[in-house]
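Let us work through a complete example step by step.
Step 1: write down the sequence.
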Amino acid sequence: MDRESREYRHGDNLSIKVVSEADAYLYVLYQQADGKTFLIFPNATQKNNRVQAKQSVEIGAGQDLFRWKIAAPYGTEFIKVIAREKPVQALSQPMLAEKRFNPISKQLLRGISLELGAEEENKKKPTDPTKPDAKKSAKTDNSNLPSIDKVSPQLALHQITNKDERWTEALVEFKTYPPDHVFEHEKVRRYGVFFGISKHKFAQYEEEVIGKSPDLLVAHRDAVDFAQRLKTHGGLTDSQVYTDQQATRANMENAITKWLPSVSKPGDTVFVYVAGHGAQVPDDGDDEADRLDEYLIPHDRFSFAAWAALEKRFRDGTLDSGMTSYHQYGAELARACMAKANNNTEIASNLMEQVFVRATAVTDDQFGHWLQALDGRQVIVVLDICHSGGFSTNERGIQVGQLRVPVQQRKEKFDFLDQELIRLKDIGQSNAALFTACSAQETTMERLEKDNGVMTFCLMESLQQATGKLTLVDAHRQVTALMTNYQEQLNKKRVEAGLKTRPINQPLLFPPANNSYLLKP
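Step 2: predict the structure and record it as tokens.
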């Protein structure tokens, strides 16, 4: 059949291709859902049913203008093919090839079975239909017979002495449905990958240099909780969650470029969620309006600050053996960068940081390329990250040997994937949306309750409270209000405590007005 699924809907074209292993007379019968049977080969335009071995016969396709279209009645239907080395007399009447669909009576069907001897092997002693398990007993008895006894001696002898009457058959079952039926393969499914990074592999080394740990409190919980909330209230079909040590750069790439494409199909919706730190690095492709590439910080991101700490330990003789390869790589890179920068330590350290970022973090350019593997899906990227990212918020420059940790105070908009989404639309990824906690401000917030990030908490609240469909546009409006209210209440408490108020963060949505993106279907 022309569909592996063997499923057809009203109005669909159906075609079949039949191949016989030997030269034979070929007959194709069709039984529709109401039990009526038709001979469809030979037919009015294909009267010669003598076929050669290995030569396919196509019915309802090819150059034939006839199209077999599915119509009522709907249900389970069958195609039966009979191949015989001599004609089947019961099916050789000229009247049975006058039309495309030639009705076959039950009497004629019985005549076909008798002529082929098909009923011979099915003959059994009569059983009492009123006796419990009569059919089951007969079946069990038959299954215990030796294989030679399953065919009567008369039929076995007839088959080997009358080779010109050899025949075979094939039966194919398929399903037909009304026009509004939705096939399983057409059902839109929703998948997600969720990354939450609270702990960082090199946090202790960065803290030695910066004086502040990049570790967070609840980012790992954000990923777990948001995935569960989407499963419960957002119709999520399947998901993978990576937290802390699992949320490495390699796992992020594999989940987005391999797992999601393997389980989803074009038309499905996929979520990519990241909670953790974000930061910026000078643009290397001259394609950013603010001359900066944004990047996500996975668990195993290696920074210049981490290497500077390793360098100090190496000089002090306290370097951990497990860090030797990282230190050696950085030392070799430092020599190359110093030569490139004509021994300008600030330029060299900037170059080193850029190399480490692009090798171990995830820039928006790289992330955009990963999303290309999801072409045809509706992609919703949700980011609860801060632009500044841990130690990069620190305003101090710390001298380590001859290399100084560079510090740049960023005031530009954090536009992770903003321009990348525009470019993606030009190359085929036409259905992607970005929802992030960060707008013009540098940092996001974790709730004082230490349960979730503010944006993620508000997004989950919006999802849980929705009584019907929840578009991303509506969710953005609701989350903006919830986040604003929470931060205003927090600032009131800060004022009461004599503390300086914090700037009000607001979430970002791109594109800003598209109701086709559903947080809850």
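Step 3: interpret the result. Residues 472-496 form the longest helix (25 residues).
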